Amino acid sequence: MRSELIFQTPYWFIIFCVLAGLAYAWLLYQPQPAWGKKLNYALAAVRGIVVALICFLLLSPLVRRTQSSVDKAKIVFAIDNSESVGKYGQAAMEQVKAAARELNDSGFEVSIESLEGTQNNADSLAFNQNKTNLAGLLQTVRTNFEGRNLTDVVLLSDGIVNQGVSPAYNRYPFRVNALAVGDSVPKLDIRVKDVVSNRIAYLGNEFPLRAEIAANGLQGKSTTVTLKQNGRVIQSQPVVIDRADYFKAFDFKTSSAQKGVQHYTIELGAVSGETSGRNNRKEVYIDIIDGRQKILLMALAPHPDIKSIRSVIEANDNYELDINILSIANNPPASTKQYDLVILHQIPNVLGLGNTQVRKFLDSKMPLFFILGNQSAVPLASSLNRSLFINASANNQIDKVTARFNPSFTQLNLDAESLKLLERLPPLSVPFGEYNISSGTETILYQKVGTLNTNKPLLVLNTNGDQKTAVLAGEGLWQWRQEEFAQTSKQEVVDNLFQKLIQVLSVKEDRRKFRVYPISNEFEAGEQVAFQTEVYNDIYEPIFGQEVKLQLVDEKGKSKQFTYTHSKETPRFNVSGLADGVYRYAASTTLKGKQENVSGQFVIRNADLELSNTTADFGMLRDLARRSGGAFITPASLQQFIQKLKTDRPADRLDSTEDMVELIYLKWLFFLIVVLLGAEWGLRKYHGGY
Description:
Elements: E1 2-6, H1 14-29, H2 37-57, E2 62-71, E3 74-79, H3 86-105, E4 109-114, E5 117-118, H4 134-144, E6 150-157, E7 175-180, E8 189-197, E9 200-202, E10 207-216, E11 222-229, E12 232-240, E13 245-254, E14 260-268, E15 281-289, E16 293-299, H5 304-314, E17 319-325, H6 326-329, E18 341-345, H7 355-363, E19 368-371, H8 378-385, E20 388-392, E21 398-405, E22 428-431, E23 433-437, E24 442-449, E25 452-462, E26 469-472, H9 477-488, H10 493-506, E27 514-518, E28 522-524, E29 529-535, E30 547-553, E31 559-565, E32 572-575, E33 581-591, E34 594-605, H11 618-628, E35 632-633, H12 638-647, E36 653-662, H13 667-686
């Protein structure tokens, strides 16, 4: 370290500091002391030095400190310790460890990184990782050695990548030297390359699964591909391998009468001559749900709006729609049937059809969407919807208005720019009168009369309280959809608006006070399963300290019991050591003397990505080395590469850091002044001075 004193004032100001010290010492020690002259001179010198030093510090001098360090050239051995490298990597590790020792003895700083992270003990490295992300491995190296003198990375790998992007297309601030291991000759093998399926299917519906089968060098042979559920064969198809490089997709269709996650297996029959049978099957997990939200569209009479609303709803498979036209059937649905949303078109109305049914819907707290029309009983509708109040004219006069979006409305995350289209669409027929909204109601669309913008609401939404309601004050929605298609050849803006409105009205809110759920619906084999726990009081404030009992049951009916205490510091409970398959869980706790229960399910997948391809990709490794300026090497040429590194050894880097601080902030000066003044004062007191 090198230090340099820098003055912020003219350096000759030091003379005044010295004079101040001399003057102070002379005035204090001029009288004849009670002690000897030598001691008097010593005490005067101490006082003068301290005063001069304090005056000097008041000039705010700076100290510039420069510290230099040597950053040695660094070499990182990045080890792809995946299962596909296996025995080839284990055989090459002895050479890698010897090369690391040799480089270290030559003055390099050597580190070993793997897919699991930094390896302090290379002897304990096991080639058992079930996935390979080489781009992630090299990015980790880049992050760990950011700003360091890292010149070369030696990547031991077979070039097989089954997760993340190919590393060949990334840029690195170091040379990547590819140490290629493995067998680049395709093995005689047939395998289930992939299975394409939906993650979710509906109860009783038929759904597809596609099995992609690949084979190498087994032409002329045949087998079968089978779809199974819990060991039961559902369907089989013949597989005839007609060429050396074989690939074909096989489509299956099935359905399930059981709710929950269902376990399916795509399995290939064994073929003589194949090297491995482990990749002849793949597990598929599909969540069968009976989760369609039930919507009732009840209308006074046939109307073009009904078809438009039906098209908007049926565009989403999650909805199950019932339509009831009262003037035709005059049989309102039973009030006992529970709907997630009821859409009331011109109900209540002046004819009295369905008016009593609306009160039953209100009593059952079902979400309601009122659409007013020319036959609506406006005063009764205003009293029942509890959101929009219309004081209509006595002669039931109607008005023609277009729509203007309220940019202050943010609950549905709508695009204000695209909704400007509504101002160019045909007008709706709305009751003429005074409009008011209740507390908690938000306006989505305002009425626009000609070119005049008004503050009268056209479409409102209220999600506060126990019952959600929305009101559209006019009819003519069908004209909006037709005109939008005429102008844009699409029906997106209007449909998106009402689809989101229906979604927010029909979605069920979770009002449970006790919740336990896994942080993901799917986990990989060997991964810890984390359960999030939430407990609330009567006003839905989080509370802690409850004992929670958790039970896990696998597909074979084997159960495991756990007990833990929910706390603010540890809101998650982790479970490890679970095999692949479908698990059902049940959790319980006691709140105010009452037992609360929650249940669910999750899946642990054993992807076996390493088995889907075991043919080394040396072409990718060559491309990676070429793009980064490195070399493509084999275990046989590793020693030659190490000698080249030693011969062309990169220079060590000299790093310097410089900082500047005011002298007055140095702590050791403070303590020096305190010691000097303390010593002077102590000697004066000891010899009888004051």
